[in-house]
Design brief:
With 123 residues, the chain is mostly helical. 49% of the residues lie in helices and 0% in strands. The protein contains 4 helices and no strands. Bound molecules: iron/sulfur cluster.
Length: 123
């Protein structure tokens, strides 16, 4: 079985249904992940983590992501999967939700513009 790029070694608030990405879905980028052995437990929240500790941990995880050669691939994987927990590709779960919401709004706007153009051309 393919290992996740970052395996939480501490007890983390990651539900058991969080399935590892299959290699044919995620691509070979896992092999180059800087966080393959997340021994510091940076990428997933331990249970009942205070806000200040969470923010500090997430910033530390993002610094790791910033020097990772597969950050773009990892981020897209986490957005497409989607991965609901942890830091992936330099984004927290909340930040990924914002990116996904923006993408959905953009798709709706593009569809509306295309429909308007079709109507104008037909009319
Ligand atoms: S971008 Fe971050 S989370 Fe993704 S593989 Fe690299 S270090 Fe891990």
């Amino acid at each position: 079985m393919l290992q996740l790029p970052h395996q939480p070694l501490q007890v983390a608030a990651v539900p058991p249904q969080r399935a590892p990405a299959r290699e044919d879905e995620a691509g070979p980028w896992h092999a180059e992940a800087v966080c393959r052995r997340d021994e510091a437990g940076l990428f997933f929240a331990p249970s009942k983590e205070p806000t200040a500790a969470r923010l500090a941990r997430e910033e530390a995880a993002k610094r790791v992501c910033a020097r990772c050669p597969v950050m773009v691939e990892c981020r897209e994987h986490a957005l497409l999967q989607p991965e609901p927990y942890g830091v992936w590709g330099g984004l927290t779960a909340a930040e990924r939700r914002v990116v996904l919401a923006r993408r959905r709004r953009r798709e709706v706007e593009l569809r509306k513009a295309a429909a308007t153009e079709r109507i104008a051309q037909a009319g």
